Amino acid sequence: MRKIFEKFTPSDFRFLAEVFCRGGEEKVFLSLVEKDPETLDQILEDDLLFQRVAQDERFFVQVSPYLYFELLLRRAIRDIERESYTLERVGYRTVVPVFDGKKVLEVLARDALRDYLVELLVSFIRINHITVYIRRGRGIYLKKTLSDFDLDLLAELSERVDEPYRFIFLKRAGDIALFVSGIFPEQLFGELHASFAKRAWLRGFRGKGEELEEKGAELYRRASESSTAREYQLDSLLSYIAENFRFTKKPLNVMTDRYLTFRKYDIFQALLN
Questions:
Q1: C-alpha span between 238 and 221 (Å, rounded)
Q2: Do residues 91 and 190 make contact, with C-beta atoms less than 8 angstroms apart?
Q3: Using CA atoms, how far apart are residues 202 and 238, in angstroms rounded to an integer?
């Protein structure tokens, strides 16, 4: 069973019933999809469901971010299956077709990886602040509050703190690299989009497309080697993402190019404040 299904809310299931049921079928339908993961999995592939979510401007009022991103990820994967290639950005306005669809689908065959991508996208809807104590000497600690969207600072602090903070910082920094590479690839090359040129976090990533991929893979690799990763049973998955970072970001690229082009600045508006 996909673990992400456990994150779906009662409102999500009511929305599914509203889309597919007529008359007095709702109770039977809800009982079925809530108890039968295979049936739920089949229903989530339905074109009608995707169309309803894609066209509704009130998408987060009716469904949770987990269901929303799950549906978009499924559609992106279907697009890759149909076309067998992905578009890779080599400049601000230039993309080229890369026939790596088979490899991308192989990587995404892991349910745990799909779940991870959905969780990752949900995690960037809001930006959190963390207070940590950094050891400066024997018995001397510095209290510091930081944003969990500062990749460079998180990577730097991972060198100075003990577990479990080291793992938390490395993993989050890797997540930032994957998220930006996947959802905001146009900002990694050339000039920034004029509307967002003043955003400090975008300026920091400009011109760092390949470098960001390499850094993200390294951060995930180091996170996977942590004892905390083994404790959370994430060591194998994070190692796999590290080895396949470029392919893991591809469905996110398809998703943002086709289905999030205009919405992403509203969905992830916390990043732009």
A1: 7
A2: yes
A3: 25
DSSP string, 101-144: HHHHHHHTT-HHHHHHHHHHHHHTSS--EEEEEEEEETTEEEEE
Could you tell me the two tokens for 245? 């970072």
| pLDDT band, residue 201 (cuts 50/70/90) | low
List residues bridging with 131 in a β-sheet.
145
Residue tagged 């104590």 (tokens): 133
Q: Where are the alpha helices (DSSP H) in the chain?
A: 10-20, 26-35, 37-43, 47-55, 59-62, 65-83, 101-107, 111-123, 151-157, 165-183, 200-205, 209-224, 227-231, 235-243, 245-248, 250-259, 264-267
pLDDT of residue 1: 75
Instruction: Render the burial of 103-128: b for 16+ CB within 10 Å, e for the rest.
Output: ebbebbeeeebbbbbbbbbbbbeeee
Residue 273, pLDDT above cutoff 60: no
Tell me the two tokens of residue 27.
Answer: 């109770």
Q: Do 101 and 86 contact (CB within 8 A), yes or no?
A: yes
Question: Does 197 score more than 50 pLDDT?
Answer: no
pTM of structure = 0.88
pLDDT at 135 over 80: no
